[in-house]
User: Which sequence fits this backbone?
């Protein structure tokens, strides 16, 4: 609409002048360069990190030769293997529980009439997004230490519970968006044909909602996998996740091995988000 | 007769719907209330308790944590003396977060404009490029930035290679490094809301401006910027709040010497073993966040009134 220059009635000098300029109507000097520079700056550090993970040298500065030795070293490192396993375990549990809770909450906030306290419900669900992570981290630590004192129960369950809580808003967003895009027609048709609410949900709503649920689950998984601050505070001894392992290794010194592990972790996140982006692109068509 | 029975049936179905809704909402709300909101209350409580020797708290009420924020108790005569070291950390954090917000706005605005003026079918791809780093690990992105900023990092090597400088600039472990790191980390938060408001820009208004002999700067200042204002405010809030509570960026790029609020709080729960003081510091941080949000809410409602 705004892309096409408005046609002037009659070829007056004025309209010619206007049309000539309308070609660069949207141009702002330097903005294009700034845009490219921004993308370049966002990716440059990551590209350097990835490149030097393949360097056959102890140095993370001077390039010598292509090699996979740091990946081999990372694979053989038991600390890294355990941390990776811990990360996956926590992320899987958090993803399952947060996605189920988020799906139910999304159904409640979109598939029923507006209700009193709806704003409050939104506020509570999105609360983990609005508070600085460090505050959530130390508050959760305080709560858990209190619970541990009172009950004597310890274990990885605390870490999983903390992850579930901050994953809920991320899982909730795409599921709610999907539900809002879906028309009610099919569900109403189901109800007209004497399907019970459960049958309607099971055979109509759920299959239609599946892409949204998958998207939510993937975001929850990525967010859990990447968390540092809350895990740093809440994780007990022996509950080291991969980011916490990397943080500890960085404090001891920089090695290309960290680049290799980091590249793997970045690769997993990028792959998941890429799949999500492609799936959603297809969904809209 | 039929009327009343209908309303009875209706009431019954309404009641059932309400029950279903409650049951559906319960898990998410209970999890977040129990693990995310209730702990804030515990933090508030802890901030009035006495620190335990090995971390944790002793259940004796005292406002000491808040007193410690501003004053230092003399070891010998117990008098209070004004101590601005914690206040300095807060002021530095506010300054750095504010600076990073302005920096992100100056870089993010042209970028968002650049994307918003791309052909429609290309925009999603560009937005994807902007958001992708957000989904990669913050720690790893900061580490990548550290590799670039080091004395023998890419920036110094290329500057020396070109011959601009002879010796490497020491950027790492300075405020500049933290500042650059904060912009780098939170730039996507600035670009996305800016894009959302610029995308709706009607270029006939821009054309009208040019027809009235405005130059580019005046069009930007008086037409585009006011329309993008909601995006500018939202972007600034989204960068400022997490920037204020940043932990990883100052920990890695500031080298642990240039503390921000987030690190100071973490230290209280770690090596300093002063949970009440850490809780108090966290609550003061929360108060700053609430103030920022109130300013945001006020400017949004003001904008809505100006338009309506």
Assistant:
């Amino acid at each position: 609409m705004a892309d096409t220059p408005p046609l002037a009635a009659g070829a007056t000098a004025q309209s010619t002048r206007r049309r000539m300029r309308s070609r660069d109507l949207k141009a702002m000097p330097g903005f294009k360069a700034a845009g490219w520079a921004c993308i370049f700056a966002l990716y440059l550090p990551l590209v350097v990190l990835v490149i030097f993970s393949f360097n056959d040298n102890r140095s993370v500065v001077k390039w010598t030769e292509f090699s996979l030795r740091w990946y081999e070293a990372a694979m053989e490192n038991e600390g890294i293997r355990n941390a990776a396993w811990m990360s996956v375990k926590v992320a899987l549990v958090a993803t399952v529980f947060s996605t189920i809770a988020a799906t139910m909450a999304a159904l409640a906030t979109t598939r029923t009439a507006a209700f009193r306290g709806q704003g409050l419900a939104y506020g509570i669900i999105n609360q983990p997004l609005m508070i600085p992570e460090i505050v959530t981290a130390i508050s959760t630590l305080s709560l858990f230490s209190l619970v541990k004192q009172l009950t004597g129960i310890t274990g990885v369950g605390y870490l999983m519970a903390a992850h579930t809580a901050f994953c809920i808003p991320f899982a909730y967003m795409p599921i709610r968006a999907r539900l809002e895009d879906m028309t009610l027609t099919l569900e109403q048709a189901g109800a007209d044909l004497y399907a019970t609410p459960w049958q309607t949900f099971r055979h109509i709503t759920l299959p239609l909602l599946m892409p949204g649920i998958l998207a939510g689950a993937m975001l929850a998984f990525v967010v859990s996998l990447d968390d540092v601050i809350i895990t740093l505070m809440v994780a007990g001894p022996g509950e080291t996740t991969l980011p916490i392992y990397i943080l500890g290794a960085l404090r001891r010194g920089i090695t290309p091995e960290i680049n290799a592990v980091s590249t793997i972790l970045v690769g997993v996140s990028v792959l998941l988000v890429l799949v999500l982006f492609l799936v959603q692109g297809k969904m809209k068509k | 007769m039929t009327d009343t029975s209908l309303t009875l049936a209706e009431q019954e179905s309404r009641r059932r719907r309400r029950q279903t809704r409650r049951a559906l909402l319960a898990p998410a709300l209970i999890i977040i209330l129990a693990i995310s909101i209730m702990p804030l209350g515990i933090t508030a409580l802890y901030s009035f308790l006495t620190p335990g020797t090995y971390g944790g708290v002793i259940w004796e009420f005292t406002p000491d944590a808040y007193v410690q924020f501003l004053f230092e108790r003399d070891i010998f005569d117990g008098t209070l003396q004004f101590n601005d070291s914690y206040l300095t950390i807060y002021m530095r954090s506010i300054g750095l977060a504010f600076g990073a917000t302005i920096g992100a706005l100056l870089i993010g605005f042209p970028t968002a404009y650049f994307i918003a003026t791309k052909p429609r079918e290309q925009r999603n791809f560009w937005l994807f490029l902007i958001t992708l780093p957000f989904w990669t690990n913050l720690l790893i992105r900061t580490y990548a930035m550290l590799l670039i900023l080091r004395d023998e990092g890419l920036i110094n090597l290329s500057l020396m290679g070109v011959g601009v400088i002879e010796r490497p600039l020491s950027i790492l472990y300075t405020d500049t490094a933290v500042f650059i790191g904060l912009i780098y980390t939170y730039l996507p938060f600035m670009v996305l809301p800016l894009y959302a408001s610029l995308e709706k820009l009607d270029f006939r208004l821009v054309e009208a401006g040019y027809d009235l002999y405005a130059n580019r700067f005046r069009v930007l200042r008086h037409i585009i910027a006011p329309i993008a204002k909601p995006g500018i405010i939202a972007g600034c809030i989204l960068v400022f709040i997490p920037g204020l509570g940043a932990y990883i960026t100052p920990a890695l790029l500031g080298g642990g010497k240039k503390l921000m609020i987030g690190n100071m709080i973490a230290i209280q729960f770690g090596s300093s073993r002063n949970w009440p003081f850490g809780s108090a510091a966290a609550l003061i941080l929360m108060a700053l966040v609430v103030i920022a949000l109130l300013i945001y809410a006020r400017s949004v409602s003001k904008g809505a009134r100006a338009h309506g």
Summary: Residues 38 and 61 of chain B are 20 Å apart (CA to CA). Chain B touches chain A through 93 residues (CB under 8 Å). Residues 87-201+235-273 of chain B form a domain with the MetI-like fold fold (CATH 1.10.3720.10).
